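haha ok so turns out i had the wrong file open the whole time. this is the CORRECT one, sorry everyone. sequence first:
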Amino acid sequence: MDQARLKTIEDNPIEAGLDSFREIFRTICQDRSLPAIPESLESLHENDLQDLVLDLLLELQRLPVARLLPSSGRSNHLRTDILKLSPAIISNEYEIDRIKPLLHAVVAENTVDTVIWNHVYAALTESTPPPQTIASSLPETPGLLSPAQFSNFSEYDQYMDEVLKEELGELYVGLPRFYEAFFGAVPELDRASKAVFAKCLQGDEPLFREGWRDWPADAELDGVLSWFSTVIGKLEDLADEYKPTTTLRRRPLAQPSRPIRGSTTERKLDVGFIADPDAQKDSRCHWSQILVPGELRSNPSADTALEAWLDLGRSVREVLTAQDNRRFVLGFTLCGSLMRIWEFDRLGGTASESFDINQDGEQFVYAILGFLWMSDQRLGFDPTIISSGGRRYIEIARNGQTERLILDRLIKRASCVAGRGTTCWQAHREEDGMPLVIKDFWEYSETKKNRVHQRIVVRDFGKPIYEASSRVSLLSALEACIEGHESLRSKAGILHRDISINNLMINEDDENPSWRGFLIDLGLAIHEQREGVSGARGRVGTRVFMAIGVLLGERHSFMHDIESFFWVLFWICIHYDGPHRARVVRHFDEWHTAGADQLADLKKGKIGHEGDFIRFAKENFTQYYQPLVPWVNRVRKIVFPNGGRWEKEDAALYSRFRKILRDAQEDPEVSQVSE
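then structure:
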């Protein structure tokens, strides 16, 4: 660290600036029956760690020195770098393990400021994957920072504005074929708009003559709103004979002073189109009813990214969050008499060229009739989610048959515009009521230029494997997880690549039809035979469970995942003294802070010599898991032949690993119920 930076840190001490974060950490530890010490970080669930990281980043941003310290990249200062990291944490596109050294430093007693800021810079430097554009790091579930974490709603809104700017990244405006792409399939639209505009030119007092009649000269908001509602009604009447028979009744919305229901904070909408044709002027609307949001400005100069465009993006985020069957949203901005049509989806925002509605009246008619007439699918609704008889369902083809899956309730919906847009529903199969979970998300394609809509249907749900109620249950679930990994690879050609204690699940509920053990989270998975690199760059996986070869930079193999199963079992035996009895082991602190090469050496030191391994296991396995010492050693010997790393791939390792786990379950000492 250079002298200028050191002096800035010395002149601006943190002092009590992170005390509120430390109190949050103490509260979480208390709730989890853990001591409030750095080592407890290793026993916290991934969701707790994510929340802690977001809280810490928020507090670091608030420190005055964050605005004085230089950026680690091209930003104005360090605070901007920290702000950009939050969306990556939220979207799970940043490995939490990389920021654990910073967490350790902050919650430890008497850590000097230079150490904390060094860890901040290190976390920012190691941010992966490196963004190609701002939109590479995108807010996702489990949620952005809540209003409760801010002193007032204004501060929360400012935070959300910054996140939205980073999320949307570069907006593409002035696309020449925009209308053809989004309005071209509306039946009769081109012919009808020409005919309707011709009618607007007729009569002694035509609706349009060198501009729209009654258009307010100063484009003042209330005047424009009144004009907008009136002119749309007249255009609808003039277009009635051309209207497609399947058109749904929609109406304009103009309630800029009334908050729309369904927002986290009070959020209003200038203008737009709504799905409720019976709503009156004073009716309260919900974001789930908004079809087309719009933003108004009196001045044409407001047609910029920092004004009308960003405000429209806020409204679009509310619409996408409230409507779990929405894939994209069309909207518009009207700045003075300059109109621009927008489309927002999981990649960001694109827009048409702007046009003056008082000079190109026919284009205005075309846009308005398009919004009123286009199908729900053209407005961005997912046609695969079908509503009928008060139920919603999707249909899938499986084994040559069509199955109907009923959506019971929404579990979660990502609050974002650009990003994976993760949505999860609890569902059941109509045929037999089998409970299911359906997950929708938009994954990047290989080129990073598009996102691919993916839907996963799973019937399995359970709890993390380390919560197993007995040693036999743990071994049985681990055996099932290994079998599942082999099946995923042999039948689908998929390599998981993130074997960890939070991604191995156990089911001990006799009424739950799920497997007794199964894998979750294919976020880092790849097709094994696929050429080229995957979307996740560099070493992937959860750090402490990574195979030695992966830490050393080898291309990921199924053998590495099998090794990770060993490290999961090894870790549980040391850190859990039975169900719900996690403990802290200081010896392993370094596993979270060491570099990749150093961690590889640490792991080699544990498995290289049988006598040393058995001695270490007897000294460090908890009393509860002492009966597993000889069995874990047997696993070690097949995963690390002759005390070293494997030299060639061997698919038979799957069955040998599972056999040891099955034999261990028959061991009387293992199966004996502990007091």
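The longest helix spans residues 471-492.
again sry for the mixup
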